[in-house]
Design goal:
By secondary structure, this protein is of the alpha+beta class. The protein has one domain: OB fold (Dihydrolipoamide Acetyltransferase, E2P) (Beta Barrel), CATH 2.40.50. The chain contains 3 helices and 10 strands. It has a 5-stranded mixed sheet. It has a 5-stranded mixed sheet with strand order 3-6-7-5-4. Strand 1 and strand 2 form a beta hairpin. The N and C termini lie far apart (about 90 Å). The model has no long low-confidence stretch (mean pLDDT about 80).
Amino acid sequence: MSATAPDFFAEQVLRLRAERLAAPRERSEERPAGTGVLCFQVAGETYALPLDALAEVMPLAGVTPVPGQAQHLLGVTNVRGEIRPVLNLHVLLGLAEPAPNLRCYGVFLRAGGREVGLRADLVERIRFIDEAGLTLPHRTANGLPQRFVAGITPDTTILLDPAQILALDVLRDRRTDPRRAT
C-alpha cells in the first residue's frame, strides 16, 4: 500500500521535527559577568539583593501585625501554610513611610531553612553587577544604617547585605536561641 502525498508530507514534517528536537541545543547567550541581583524600589530609591539569597518574590497582602515587636517588623504573613515574618524596609532603613493601601511586594530571603520577607514598593528587574565596582559605605550620605549596605553601584543602586538583615534580633527564634534569658 503506497502512502498518499499528504501522508508522505506529514511523515516528513514529523521526522524533521524529531530530528530538530533530538539535536543538541545551541549554546545560548553567555551569562553576563558579575553577581546577579534583584533590583527593587523602596521610597523612590533603588535597592538590590543577591539572587542566591532570595527564595521568592510575590505581591504582599494580608500582613498581620505582631504586638510588642520592633517597628521594623511589619508583621507576619501566611505563604502556602507557612507563617513568615515581614520586615518594613522603610522603617529599618530610616526612610519615609509609604501611603497606606498602596500595592507592595514581598521579597523573601532564605537562610538556615527559614524565609523572611522584606516589603518593597516596586520590583524592577534582574541585573548583573560587578562587585569590584561597588563603593563601600563609610557613612552613607543619605543616612542609611551602614550595617545593612554591602555597597553602592556607580548608578547609585544600593546593594543590601542579606546576612546583616537576617541577623536582626527581632528575627531570632526565641524558643531555640541559646542567648535567650531563662
